[in-house]
Design a protein that fits this description.
This protein is an alpha/beta fold. It folds into 3 domains: about 325 residues, ABC transporter type 1, transmembrane domain (ABC transporter transmembrane region fold), CATH 1.20.1560.10; about 160 residues, Rossmann fold; about 80 residues, P-loop containing nucleotide triphosphate hydrolases (Rossmann fold). Helix content is about 65%, strand content about 10%. It contains 19 helices and 10 strands. The strands form 2 sheets. Strands 6-7-8-3-9-10 form a 6-stranded mixed β-sheet. The protein has a 4-stranded antiparallel β-sheet with strand order 2-1-4-5. The longest helix has about 55 residues.
């Protein structure tokens, strides 16, 4: 059984830290093998037999295309020999020419049927992996997202998703089939002629692969540097555009241009080196192929001169070599790109292996609906080991009561709401809900009972109606308008040209701070939580609107357990109890009148704010 004592033992060592994630770290061959194994599980999914059938059928079409492709040169040889060896009048071999044309068509048709069947396998795998990565990112804890770089992270996901399609298609339909074709062509040439062709082909391929591997590994560092510079440039651009207003406030456009251009210049240098090394690789590869081709053609030409081979045999050998060396040349490109794609995919798969610092216990239970009290018991917490934020905080928020927490900046007020919402776990002590440690509950179930109105309200780039309804997807328009009235924002919305269909812009920038906060309050109320957390929720409101909302709160909060974190003391004078937090410790507690009579910290804060208003 998951007891409170057991919870204390499990979590007394502090919050689990997430696995490190470096989007530009080097990857090894073992990582590539692991990535291919992971990808293979999506290519051959256990729970989707249709995908397995499609893969098998695609392989059948692939085999058919290769078989016909091997036979095509023989048809050409027979046609040519028919012209050159005939005595007297030459008959046009119409049937053979038609068969040759149909064989060529068959190669293309089988290839297209293969792609048509296999495309659903590729797209399904790409979709499943992308969705799982997206889900995992949302399941990671707050500390990961606070330290992330959105632009760089989005580029990692974009490149990784693109790499999935490339690897699946080319590894399955180019690398393996090309190696199979090399073996078949070599066997045909040895069987019909002699071992000289096999030796030259073998030496050519060995040299080609050796050079490709060595030079590709050497130039891979340039690709990695390109990725790093591209991610940096993308991060810089997105960060600058998100903070557009701040850039304008300080007139730092030129600074942003220089910063972005520095990243682009680094990418430019890496891209030039990458292309230069690619050109060198292509020249060396072509020299090896042309050398092998020349030796084989000289041997075949001598056979024609010595009359041990026909002109059709010469054309047969030449056709086979073209069929062999062209895909082999393409194989070099595919290997390079597969290698690059594996690097990109590994970065994305690394995201799925990052551990959430806050995790559900194996036997976590659902948090049922009902009235809950909140209790902090000797809570110690710090975002890092060097600095403790809360130092033995203990207090209780009775069910249906409104408890306020005040104090100077940095005292640890907002940390309380993050612990209740379980963005972080306490390092010692406990936070309890209805007498049970919140670590006993599943995170999703716990959070469904809590409505949060943060100080820094961020809205989605959608309509006002969508943002209010986001608290309860699928809510009716009547429900959206009801909570908008409670949040004192309905009249404002109705006066807008598009009413509830008004677009709020990126992060809600088209609305004022007070308007965004009222939308956030409505969004929290439509969730119908049992607990309300207000973190400076009225800090951007004018006095008239604030008083209207507070009047609504007084009626609303009777049905909720409410924790109000406030800077403006005028907003919490009606709180059932006020807790004064200073330097991570509770220094005073009581209602508004009692604290004023004490004449200590709260009284000084109150007098200071009254003096500011006057």
């Amino acid at each position: 059984m998951f007891t409170a004592a057991g919870i204390e033992r499990c979590y007394s060592c502090g919050p689990m830290r997430p696995a490190s994630y470096d989007p530009e770290a080097n990857t090894s061959e073992s990582n590539h093998k692991r990535t291919i194994r992971e990808l293979g599980s999506y290519l051959w999914p256990k729970d989707k037999p249709e995908m397995k059938v499609r893969l098998i059928v695609a392989m059948v079409f692939l085999a058919a295309a290769k078989a016909v492709n091997i036979y095509v040169p023989f048809l050409l040889k027979i046609i040519i020999d028919g012209f050159t060896l005939s005595e007297g009048a030459v008959a046009l071999p119409v049937a053979l020419i038609v068969a040759y044309a149909f064989a060529r068509l068959g190669v293309t048709a089988f290839g297209e049927f293969r792609d048509l069947i296999f495309v659903k396998v590729i797209q399904n795998a790409q979709r499943v992996i992308s969705l799982l990565t997206f889900k995992h990112l949302h399941n990671l804890s707050l500390d990961f997202h606070l330290s992330r770089q959105t632009g760089g992270l989005s580029r990692v996901i974009e490149r990784g998703t693109r790499g999935i399609s490339f690897v699946l298609r080319f590894l399955t339909f180019n690398i393996i089939p090309t190696l199979l074709e090399v073996g078949l062509v070599t066997a045909v040439l040895v069987y019909n002629f002699d071992y000289f062709y096999a030796v030259i082909i073998f030496l050519t391929i060995v040299c080609y692969i050796a050079v490709t591997l060595i030079l590709t590994e050497w130039r891979l560092k340039f690709r990695k540097k390109m990725n790093a510079k591209e991610s940096k440039a993308n991060t810089s651009a997105i960060d600058s555009l998100i903070n557009f207003e701040t850039v304008k406030y300080f007139g730092n456009e030129e600074h942003e241009y220089r910063r972005f251009d520095e990243s682009l210049a680094g990418y430019e240098r890496a891209a030039i080196k990458s292309q230069s090394s690619l050109s060198l690789l292509n020249v060396v590869q072509s020299a090896i192929i042309c050398g092998g081709l020349a030796m084989i053609m000289v041997r075949a030409g001598q056979g024609v001169v010595d009359e041990t081979m026909t002109v059709g045999d010469f054309v047969l050998v030449n056709t086979y070599l073209i069929q062999l060396f062209l895909p082999l040349n393409f194989l070099g490109f595919v290997y390079r790109e597969v290698k690059n794609s594996l690097v990109d995919m590994e970065k994305m798969f690394e995201l799925t292996r990052v551990n959430a610092s806050v995790q559900d216990a194996p036997d976590a239970t659902e948090c049922g609906s009902g009235s809950y009290d909140i209790e902090f018991t000797d809570v110690h917490f710090g975002y890092n080991e060097k600095r403790e934020i809360l130092k033995g905080v203990s207090f209780r928020v009775p069910a249906g009561k409104n408890i306020a927490v005040v104090g100077p900046s940095g005292a640890g007020k907002s940390t309380l709401s993050r612990l209740i919402f379980r963005f972080y776990d306490v390092q010692s002590g406990s936070v309890r809900l209805g007498g049970e440690d919140i670590r006993k509950f599943k995170q999703k179930s716990l959070r469904s009972q809590i409505g949060v109105v943060p100080q820094d309200t961020v809205l989605f780039n959608d309509t006002i109606g969508y943002n209010i309804g986001y608290g309860s997807p699928g809510a009716s328009q009547d429900e959206i308008e009801r909570v908008a009235k409670l949040a004192q924002v309905h009249s404002f919305i109705q006066n807008l040209p598009d009413s509830y269909d008004t677009q709020v812009g990126e992060r809600g920038l088209k609305l004022s701070g007070g308007e965004k906060q009222r939308v956030a309050i409505a969004r929290a109320l439509i969730k119908k939580p049992q607990i309300l957390l207000f973190d400076e929720a009225t800090s951007s409101l004018d006095t008239h609107t604030e008083q209207g909302i507070l009047a609504s709160f007084r009626g609303i909060s009777k049905n909720y357990t409410t924790l109000t974190i406030a800077h403006r003391l005028s907003t919490i004078v009606d709180a059932d109890e006020i807790i004064v937090l200073e330097d991570g410790k509770i220094v005073e507690r009581g209602n508004h009148t009692e604290l004023l009579q004490k004449g200590a910290v709260y009284k000084a804060m109150w007098d200071s704010q009254v003096h500011e208003k006057s």
